[in-house]
Amino acid sequence: MFTTFDRYLLKRYFHVFVIGFIATYGLYVVFDGFTNIDGFQSGADEDSSTSLLWIMLEYYLYQSAIFFDMVSPILTVLAGVVVFSLMVRHGELNPVLSAGIPTYRLAIPLALATIIVNCMICLNQEVIIPAIADKVQAERGDMGSSAQFVEPVYDFSTRIMINGQELFLTEQKMNKAEFVLSKPMVHAFVTVKSEFAVYQKQTESRPGGWLLKQASPRYQELEIAEFARDIILPGAEPDEMFIVTDVGCDQLCNRNLSSLISTPDLIARINNPSFSDLSIRKQKLDLHSRLTRPLMNLIAVLISIPFVLRKESRSLILNIAVCACVMGGLFGISQCFLYMGSAKLISPDQAAWFPVITNGTLAAWFTNRVQT
To answer: Quick check: 27 pLDDT over 90?
Structure first.
């Protein structure tokens, strides 16, 4: 049962969290806006400040989802530290302790607030960001276009090299597409060029792949091996060709940014045979890191309590400084494990879960330092 004081702490926590997000994002908008003002002006009407402001507003509205995903873990811990610091500063802790209420009873509303923020982070990660991924990657001043540079990908399942000049995420289309077919699929190495190719997702009646428009050479001119005729298919028109592959648009640009896709899509990437072992390993590390992030946020809030509310402490500023140093050390431990995971010294799951075990153990070990 939550008391009036619990609701008071929750209100203060979210007040600090919201104000912190608005302040930090406002600073980012001001700095980034003035630095890249030329990019916004290229897409605005001449002599129209309203058009410029509208373009900037639209761009930073989409970018706020990415910024929220980045700074929320930090603001989660910072809000908890500020709440307990204000309790000590205003003399609100001693009456609570004098009433026989243990210090960690005060951690319950903050733990609940952290869980609520984690739910908001998951909703933002799983629903909002994947829905606006094309807008997030758009150039400043050109929100109507989702054109991206193409990063060449080698499909390890079909042994086809996929490249192009420009990729449009919204239309699922690639301009000046090039598909390099290798032996023994064809008689000799052949580069099939297309003015534009459209990716079609898998359905019950056909597999997923790229439909090449105005392909050169044409399907009839290729010497295709019998086993490869299930991969290289003719199109409805003589100058069309369909190439079966699991490599879609999202894997041809910014494929290392797994933060732009949902967890089911990330799992699908891991199970995709088209990727190399190195790429799959990084995707696995990102997946486990995504699963452990809520736990790490909660542990960080709990581990900050013994340092902000240290027993026999004479200086609140010193407590906050010590807490900041400890948080920096825990962050360094997490980054060290992630580095070892990316360097193949440990497995991806160990790299993501060992920091949870380590920090959770330290949080339990430091409980005897809290003021009671």
So the answer is: yes
Examine the domain organization and report whether 125 and 176 are in the same domain: no
Number of domains in the chain: 2
pTM above 0.85, yes or no: no
Tell me if 65 is assigned to some domain: yes
Tell me which residue range forms the domain holding 360.
4-139+280-369
- 3-state SS record for the chain: CCCHHHHHHHHHHHHHHHHHHHHHHHHHHHHHHHHCHHHHHCCCCCCCHHHHHHHHHHHHHHHHHHHHHHHHHHHHHHHHHHHHHHHHHCCCHHHHHHCCCCHHHCHHHHHHHHHHHHHHHHHHHHHHHHHCHHHHCCCCCCCCCCEECCCCEEECCCCEEEECCEEECCCCEEEEEEEEECCCCECCCEEEEEEEEEEECCCCCCCCEEEEECCECCHHHCCECHHHHHCEEECCCCCCEEEECCCCHHHCCCCCCHHHCCHHHHHHHHCCCCCCHHHHHHHHHHHHHHHHHHHHHHHHHHHHHHHHCECCCCCHHHHHHHHHHHHHHHHHHHHHHHHHHHCCCCCHHHHHHHHHHHHHHHHHHHHHHECC
Question: What pLDDT was estimated at residue 144?
Answer: 61
- pLDDT tens digits along 128-168: 998 888 788 777 766 666 677 888 888 888 888 999 888 88
Last residue of a domain, one of 213, 236, 252: 252
Tens of pLDDT, residues 332-356: 988 899 889 888 889 988 999 999 9
In a domain, 353, yes or no: yes
User: Which residue has 């369909």 as its token pair?
Assistant: 242
